[in-house]
Design a protein that fits this description.
The chain is mainly alpha-helical. It has ten helices and no strands. Helix 1 crosses helix 4 and helix 9 runs antiparallel to helix 10. The longest helix has 30 residues.
């Protein structure tokens, strides 16, 4: 049965959303196309009508996830400054990113902490999507730092993603929270 263009676009969107969640949860090699399509409620055969390859889908998923991160950061800053004029925008972002909510939700969190190693191994479009997301988030950090320094923004982004990655890697919840607290303190003290 032929699918309308509108339905095809909705199906494609559903596959990207499902892939974004499952890739963050299981890694790029942790789920195959057949299972991903099944989780999307679609048949395996429809995949290649929508995407050139699994890596092409992965790149689109990373782009979507990091785009949502950019939107979230902007919204947090906007809401935070409306609620607390003259507030601390860096603290707002750091505390949100290095939170228990983020720690316990890798499938809905930042792509850096779940897919960076996969992107490094794959390179190409997946690594480019990561690079574009890094630039966008670092740009937001630069906009709120007193000196607007690129190096400082990249260091903060690295500290946050690294702390979250290591906190998720430990089997000890107390150590995980201690790592996040230490990173929050170090970033905020290093202004």
């Amino acid at each position: 049965m032929r699918v309308s263009r509108e339905q095809a676009a909705l199906n494609r969107d559903r596959v990207i959303d499902t892939g974004a969640r499952l890739f963050r949860e299981k890694g790029l090699d942790g789920i195959g196309i057949a299972d991903l399509m099944k989780a999307s409620g679609l048949t395996h055969g429809g995949f290649y009508g929508q995407f050139e390859s699994k890596d092409a889908l992965a790149a689109e998923c990373v782009t979507r996830v990091l785009g949502k991160s950019v939107e979230r950061w902007r919204r947090l800053l906007e809401e935070g400054l409306l609620e607390e004029p003259g507030g601390d925008p860096l603290r707002t972002l750091v505390e949100d990113y290095l939170s228990a909510r983020h720690l316990n939700g890798p499938e809905t969190g930042c792509a850096f902490t779940t897919l960076a190693a996969d992107a490094a191994r794959r390179g190409g479009a997946v690594a480019q999507a990561m690079s574009d997301g890094m630039e966008a988030l670092a740009g937001i950090l630069r906009s709120i730092l007193p000196d607007g320094g690129r190096g400082r923004a990249l260091a903060i982004l690295s500290q946050m993603a690294g702390a979250m990655t290591l906190a998720r890697a430990t089997a000890d919840p107390a150590l995980a929270e201690e790592m996040l607290a230490a990173a929050r303190g170090a970033i905020l003290a290093g202004r």
